Amino acid sequence: MHNNEKILLTHGSGGRLTHELIQTLFKKKFSNKVLNSLDDAAELEIYQKKGERIAFTIDSFVVNPIFFPGGDIGKLAVCGTVNDLAMKGAIPKAIAISAIIEEGFSIEDLRKIVDSISITAKKAGVIVAAGDTKVVEKGKADKLFLTSAGIGIIEKNIYISGKNAVQGDDVIISGTIGDHGVAVIVARNDFKIKTSIKSDCAPLNNLVSQMLNVSKNIHSMRDPTRGGLATTLNEIAQTSNVGIIIEERDIPIKNEVKSVCNILGFDPLYVANEGKLIAIVKSTDSLELLKTMKNNEYGKDAKKIGKIVKTPKGVWLRTSVKGLRPLVMLEGEQLPRIC
Fold first, then answer.
1. 174 with 302: CB under 8 angstroms?
2. 225-246: buried (b, 16+ CB within 10 Å) or exposed (e) per residue?
3. What DSSP line would sit under 10-49, residue for residue?
4. What's the confidence (pLDDT) of residue 258?
5. Four-CA torsion 283, 287, 289, 293, nearest 10 degrees
6. What is the DSSP letter of 9?
7. Is 82 strand, coil or helix?
8. What is the DSSP string of 155-166?
């Protein structure tokens, strides 16, 4: 980056500029064995017991509005942190929450958010072990920002990473895509659109635990949040140095999500999710894994949507007319402050 460059909203989109910022600034300055894998959670070797390892993650949440159909910023903070740990195959144990509150914010609204954090943490089976609160002057923030960190335990013989996808693996999505992004953008009411879509915001650690009980051949897992399905698959393809072909006809998308995206000119493949996961798994385990996922409330719409290939590299969509269309990382900013 040059000295005269400025941070843009696009740098927070989860797309190409986000990755350039991470690679050229943060990774360059902080480079180490733990960080360089760029997985959702770091795998720490400072604690080892009979092959167990610690997973550690941190995330910030600036969603606007802070209340939306299917969730709120508190639920989002817990789920986002728990899910990042789960994507490493870890069992989440504890989280910490830090709140930056704008002067004048409603205590009643804060009480609702704290209740939501408590309920979601209990559902996910984690404790809120620590926290911090700061208040800034009116106009110096936008209502409420949360930062959440979490730790979990990776049990022995579980090695899941974005770098582990190999040729022949199947690509599985746990359910319909785009629900969260559409719910949030409709809640802003900028476009006066009416819809029944709710955010898919949910803790996925129980689903992941059930998946690992039936397959030890899950090579990679990611939750396709900012940048959506297409950007997250690009991250896996780059890190594993493979190609990914997904089938357009097999990608589960609700008709209401398609309709809203058509009206607004969005591509649902790039719209954020907060309660879905991508699993890259050995093909021989796919059927049993899908059967298990479909018995869980957060995996009932799971589908196999593609395959890992040696070439062509990158991510490709096989369209309904059997052509291959490249899917690149998100360019620009579809939906700022989506999480």
1. yes
2. bbbbbbbbbbbbbbbbebbbbb
3. GGGSSSHHHHHHIIIIIHHHH--TTGGG--SSEEEEEEEE
4. 97
5. 140
6. G
7. helix
8. PTT----TT---
pLDDT for position 21: 80
Q: In angstroms, what CA-CA distances link 83 with 149, 230, 312? A: 12, 19, 30
According to the model, what pLDDT value does residue 57 have? Answer: 96
CB within 8 Å of 47: residues ≥ 6 apart: 53, 54
Q: Which residue has the tokens 């996922």?
A: 293
- The strand pair at 243-247 and 303-309 is best described as antiparallel
Token pair of 290 as six digits = 């899908």
With the CA atoms of 16, 221, 256 and 121 taken in that order, what torsion angle do they form, in degrees rounded to the nearest 10?
A: -110
Residues 6+ apart with CB under 8 A from 131: 96, 97, 98, 99
176 class by beta-carbon count within 10 Å (0-12 exposed, 13-18 middle, 19+ buried): buried
Mean pLDDT, each 10-residue run in order, the chain (339 residues): 72 81 81 81 70 93 97 98 98 94 93 95 94 91 96 94 97 98 92 91 98 97 96 97 98 97 95 98 98 98 98 96 93 82
